[in-house]
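Memo to structure team: turn this sequence into structure tokens by end of day. - J.P.
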Amino acid sequence: MKTLKTQTALITGGGSGMGRAAAELLANMGIYTFVADVNTDAAYETIRLIESKGGKADAFRVDITSGKSVADLFAVLRQKVEKLDMLVHTAAISGGIAFLEDMSDKEWQKMMDVNLTGVFFCTREAVRWMKENKTGRIVLFSSVASLIPTPGAIHYSAVKGAVNMFGKTLAVEAAKYNIRVNVIAPGYVDTPMLKYLPDGFRKYIIKKTPLDRFGEPTEVASFVAYLASDEADFVTGQVISINGGLAI
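Reply from structure team:
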């Protein structure tokens, strides 16, 4: 590996699951890691884990559905460091199982607010900052549900498909600033978000997955680490699905 250019990283949703795994791994690489989550206690637990291994990190509370909350977070970060090298946006909700004809306006709108508008708010602030320094890496998270039909999760599938195209379009827009944008579309990974799944559905998903298991958060985090490395300098505009073969 060449000299690591990525020295600072913000992980939204870093209080648990894939966000926590990514934060820990990036910090272990020597990257000053900012962990932001709506759950402050969870964010500080991630910090404790990082610091126990000698990493450097700070925790913050953010509500990604609020443009002001996101702007305030970035204002604080600007006081701490001169530049932000990487945004890893994992913050999201699953929404549970809901079929279209039974779905309420509130369920639909909450999915859009968290899983798409939150991407917009966080990425907009990151690009504004990275543009000043003519460099940056952005990793958005969608889902395998954006690649294959997922009955009972039409709102989730739709919004994650939007994240894919958001990332691809931004990769073109931001390339002139040397900002690389990629999307990770995980399959079913063993995180707190999966706890709502009925046992029967969990068994069904495992059976449908050629590797016959759920993924581990660290397996997804490893790809985030690659995108943080200098070896990924020519990678942009990609949707990479880590799904155990589910989407073949």
